[in-house]
Amino acid sequence: MKPFLLPFLLCCLVLVLWQCQRNTYSNTNFPADQLAFGSGGGFAGTLTTYHLLPNGQLFRSDGIQGDTVSIPPAKKRITKELYTHFDDLELTDIDFDFPGNRYYFISRSTADGSQKITWGDPEQPVPEAVQNLYNELKALVPLQ
After folding, report:
1. What whole-number distance in Å separates Cα of residue 85 and Cα of residue 38?
2. In this structure, are residues 90 and 67 in contact, taking their beta carbons and an 8 Å threshold?
3. What is the pLDDT of residue 66?
């Protein structure tokens, strides 16, 4: 009996430590660091926002003050790549706010502030790198 006690206790300790290290957020307590993306406008004036958190959790908000619901998470590796991709584009230096009737956006929030890029005006096309990042982010969202 005693030979099994030590491995059992070690397994329990590992599980407890692993669970403590993992941050899980709800729809009411997002961290300051997050990527948000989505679209809005059109005839009905709709707005859909997706929030990608650093741990891979994804949330969807409909409307300005609509319900925020959890959707299937992204893999942590992919999440890290998308955050790095955003940072590599140096979008914090870009002032791009050209919404059209139908518009799209990507924003990055941190404890130090936020940056938002909005596009949709056919006269002001978004840089291709931004559109590619948006497409990668949208690929995380399950089809509805």
Report:
1. 17
2. no
3. 76
Whole-number pLDDT of residue 63: 84
Name the residue among 108, 139, 133, 86 with its Cα closest to residue 35.
108
User: What does the DSSP 8-state code read for residue 55?
Assistant: T
**DSSP secondary structure, 120-138, as one string:** --TTSPPPHHHHHHHHHHH
Distance CA 121, CA 99 (A): 5
Strand partners, 106: 37, 117
Full set of structural domains in the chain with CATH: 26-138 (3.30.1560.10)
Residues 6+ apart with CB under 8 A from 30: 51, 53, 59
Distance CA 80, CA 123 (A): 33
CA distance 56 to 12: 25
pLDDT computed for residue 15 by the predictor: 59
Q: Which residues of the chain have pLDDT under 70?
A: 1-22, 92, 144
First to last CA, the chain: 53
pTM for the predicted model, two decimal places: 0.81
